[in-house]
C-alpha cells in the first residue's frame, strides 16, 4: 500500500494532466497514476511528437468496437502514455460552442453555461489569435491557427472550393462565429504536437514536492469502504490510497473501473457476479462522431502532404436544429501516400458532430478485468444517416468545384462508379469514427446521471470523475480542448471544497 495523498488521479491524459497541474499548484499532495509510460517532456518518441503522425503507433490500449452497421468492428483508438490521446490525435484545438452548453443546461446541469466555461477555456490556452475578450494569452497550452502560407496547395484549394459554394471564410474558429471554412487551430508548434504531458506537466510541474507520478501502472477498480472511496487497486494488487479519488481514465476506462468496483447497471453487474454498491447508468449513453473518408488522388504538381492537418468546413445540415452546426468536413493528408496512384492524396473526412445515436460500454463477461466491450451504434437513427449522406454529397461537390478540381487527379473513395443510389451502402461499408468518445459516465440529476454537475459520483463519497465520459452530450467540436476545460473546472471545485473544509476545521479549533 502506498502512502496516502490528498488526491489520487487515475489517468494522465487530457484531463488527468490538467488536474495534476492545478491540484498540485496549491501544495496539495497529488498522486497521478498512468497506465502508460511517463516520457519526459522533451523525450517523447517521434511517433508521438510528430503532429503529422496520427494513430496508436504502439502506444494504444488495443480496443475494438462494434460500429452497429453491417457487423463491422473497427479500432477504438485510445492512447496509453502520459498525455493520453492528446499524444496521438490530430491536435485540433477547437472549443465547443455556446449552443452545445445550452443543451447541457437544458439537460439539468448547473454551472456549465457558456459564460461560466469561457474563463476556463481562456485560462488553459496561450495564443496570439483572436480577441482578448475570448482568447487566452498566458495558459499552458499553445494554440496556433495555421496560416495560409503553411497550408498545402490542396488544403488551400479545399478552402477556395468551399468558398465557391458560398461558405464564408471564418477568421477564428474559437471566436464569435464558426459557420464556415478556415484553417485549423492546433496545439502544434513547429510540427511538434504539444500534448498535455508536455504542456501541463513540464519539468517544473513534475518537480513539485507534492506531486508523484506513477507510470506503467494499470488501475482496475476503486477501493471502497462504507460507500466511500478510499483508494484504488492496481492490476498487480497494489493499493494506493487518498482522501479524494478522481477518475480521469477516459470514456472507456472510467466506466470500466466503476463497474468493476460495483458501481453501474445492476443487471449487468449481477450477471458478472459483482456485488452492486450503486445502481447507476454507467456505460450507457456512449456517443461518437461517425466519420467517412472521401479521398482524392492529387495531381503530381500538387501532391504535397505536409502539414497533414490543414482546414475544416464546419456548418449546419439542412435538418440541423436551430443554432446547431452539425457537420464537419475536414481536409487532411492523414493517408498513406503509397496508396495513391499519384503519390499524394487529400482526405475530405465527413462527420456528423451532433449525433442522436447512442451506444454503450460494458465489461467483458469472459474477462471483466480486460478490455471493455464497446458498441457504438453509429448512424442508428434515420436523421443521423440522412445528415451523413448529405455531408458526403457536400464533400463530393467541393471535390468538383473549379478551385479544388485543379488539384485532383481522381476520386478514390467512394469512387466515380458509386452513384448517389449506391452511396448509403458504400458509406456503411467504410464507416469509421473520429475517435471522440464521450458520455458514458454522464453528468445529470439523481436518477438520470452517474455524477452530479461537479463530477461527484451519486451516492459515493470521495469519488469524482473528470474526463470526457461525464459530458452529457457529445460536443459539436473535437472534445480534446473541452476535456481540458472540464478538468480545469473540476479541479477548481475540488480546491474550493478543500478550502471550505480547512476553514471549518479552523473555526472548530
Brief summary of the model shown:
The protein is an alpha/beta fold and 509 residues long. It contains 13 helices and 27 strands. α1 packs parallel to α13 (480-508) and α4 (114-124) packs across α13.
What is the averaged pLDDT score? 97
Rough outline: globular
Count up the domains.
2
Total helices: the number is: 13
- Percent of residues in beta strands: 15-25%
Oligomer, anyone? Answer: single chain
Structural class assignment: alpha/beta
Label the CATH architecture of the largest domain: 3-Layer(bba) Sandwich
CATH topology of the largest domain: FAD/NAD(P)-binding domain
CATH class of the largest domain: Alpha Beta
Computed CA radius of gyration, to the nearest angstrom: 22 Å
Poorly predicted regions: none
Helical proportion? 25-40%
CATH superfamily of the largest domain: FAD/NAD(P)-binding domain
Task: Give a description of the structure.
- This protein has helices at residues 14-24, 46-49, 98-106, 114-124, 153-164, 196-199, 203-206, 250-260, 266-271, 382-399, 402-405, 423-430, 480-508; strands spanning 5-10, 30-33, 64-66, 73-75, 125-126, 141-142, 144-145, 180-183, 185-186, 188-189, 192-193, 211-214, 219-225, 228-234, 239-247, 263-264, 278-279, 284-286, 290-298, 309-315, 327-332, 345-352, 359-362, 373-375, 408-413, 432-433, 463-465.
- Strands 1, 2, 12, 13, 14, 15 and 27 form a seven-stranded mixed sheet that branches. Strands 8, 19, 20, 21, 22, 25 and 26 form a seven-stranded antiparallel sheet that branches.
- The protein is built from 13 helices and 27 strands.
- With 509 residues, the protein is an alpha/beta fold.
- The protein has two domains: 1-65 and 74-144 and 191-287 and 436-509, FAD/NAD(P)-binding domain, CATH 3.50.50; 147-183 and 290-354 and 380-430, Cholesterol Oxidase, domain 2.
Amino acid at each position: 500500500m502506498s502512502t496516502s495523498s490528498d488526491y489520487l488521479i487515475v489517468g494522465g491524459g487530457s484531463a488527468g494532466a490538467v488536474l495534476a497541474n492545478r491540484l498540485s499548484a496549491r501544495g496539495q499532495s497529488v498522486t497521478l497514476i498512468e497506465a502508460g509510460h511517463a516520457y519526459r517532456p522533451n523525450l517523447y518518441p517521434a511517433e508521438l511528437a510528430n503532429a503529422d503522425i496520427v494513430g496508436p503507433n504502439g502506444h494504444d490500449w488495443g480496443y475494438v468496437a462494434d460500429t452497429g452497421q453491417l457487423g463491422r468492428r473497427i479500432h477504438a483508438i485510445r492512447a496509453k502514455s502520459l498525455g493520453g490521446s492528446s499524444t496521438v490525435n490530430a491536435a485540433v484545438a477547437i472549443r465547443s460552442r455556446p449552443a452545445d452548453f445550452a443543451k447541457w443546461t437544458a439537460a439539468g446541469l448547473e454551472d456549465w453555461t457558456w459564460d461560466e466555461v469561457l474563463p476556463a477555456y481562456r485560462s488553459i490556452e496561450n495564443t496570439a489569435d483572436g480577441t482578448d475578450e475570448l482568447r487566452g494569452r498566458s495558459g499552458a497550452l499553445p494554440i496556433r491557427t495555421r496560416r495560409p502560407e503553411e497550408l498545402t496547395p490542396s488544403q488551400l484549394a479545399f478552402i477556395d472550393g468551399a468558398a465557391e459554394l458560398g461558405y464564408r471564410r471564418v477568421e477564428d474558429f474559437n471566436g464569435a462565429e464558426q459557420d464556415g471554412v478556415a484553417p485549423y487551430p492546433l496545439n502544434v508548434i513547429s510540427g511538434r504536437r504539444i500534448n498535455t504531458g508536455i504542456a501541463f506537466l513540464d519539468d517544473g510541474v513534475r518537480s513539485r514536492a507534492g506531486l508523484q507520478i506513477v507510470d506503467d501502472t494499470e488501475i482496475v477498480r476503486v477501493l471502497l469502504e462504507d460507500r466511500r472511496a478510499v483508494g484504488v487497486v492496481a492490476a498487480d494488487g497494489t493499493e494506493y490510497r487518498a482522501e479524494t479519488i478522481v477518475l480521469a481514465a477516459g470514456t472507456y476506462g472510467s466506466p470500466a473501473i466503476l463497474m468493476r468496483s460495483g458501481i453501474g447497471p445492476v443487471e449487468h453487474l449481477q450477471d458478472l457476479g459483482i456485488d452492486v454498491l450503486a445502481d447507476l447508468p454507467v456505460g450507457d449513453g456512449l456517443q461518437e462522431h461517425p466519420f467517412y473518408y472521401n479521398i482524392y488522388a492529387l495531381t503530381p504538381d500538387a501532391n504535397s502532404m505536409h502539414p497533414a492537418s490543414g482546414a475544416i468546413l464546419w456548418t449546419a445540415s439542412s435538418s440541423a436544429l436551430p443554432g446547431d452546426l452539425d457537420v464537419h468536413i475536414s481536409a487532411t493528408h492523414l493517408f498513406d501516400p503509397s496508396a495513391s496512384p499519384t503519390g499524394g492524396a487529400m482526405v475530405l473526412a465527413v462527420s456528423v458532430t451532433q449525433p442522436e445515436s447512442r451506444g454503450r460500454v460494458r465489461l467483458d463477461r469472459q474477462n471483466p478485468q480486460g478490455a471493455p466491450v464497446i458498441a457504438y451504434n453509429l448512424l442508428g437513427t434515420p436523421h443521423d444517416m440522412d445528415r451523413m449522406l448529405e455531408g458526403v454529397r457536400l464533400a463530393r461537390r467541393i471535390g468538383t468545384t473549379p478551385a479544388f478540381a485543379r488539384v485532383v487527379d481522381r476520386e478514390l473513395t467512394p469512387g466515380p462508379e458509386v452513384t448517389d443510389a449506391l452511396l448509403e451502402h458504400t458509406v456503411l461499408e467504410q464507416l469509421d469514427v473520429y475517435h471522440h468518445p464521450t458520455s458514458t459516465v454522464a453528468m445529470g440529476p439523481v436518477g438520470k446521471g452517474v455524477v452530479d454537475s461537479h463530477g461527484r459520483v451519486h451516492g459515493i463519497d470521495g469519488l469524482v470523475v473528470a474526463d470526457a465520459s461525464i459530458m452529457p452530450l457529445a460536443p459539436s467540436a473535437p472534445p480534446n480542448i473541452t476535456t481540458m476545460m472540464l478538468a480545469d473546472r473540476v479541479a477548481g471545485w475540488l480546491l474550493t471544497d478543500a478550502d471550505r473544509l480547512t476553514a471549518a476545521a479552523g473555526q472548530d479549533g
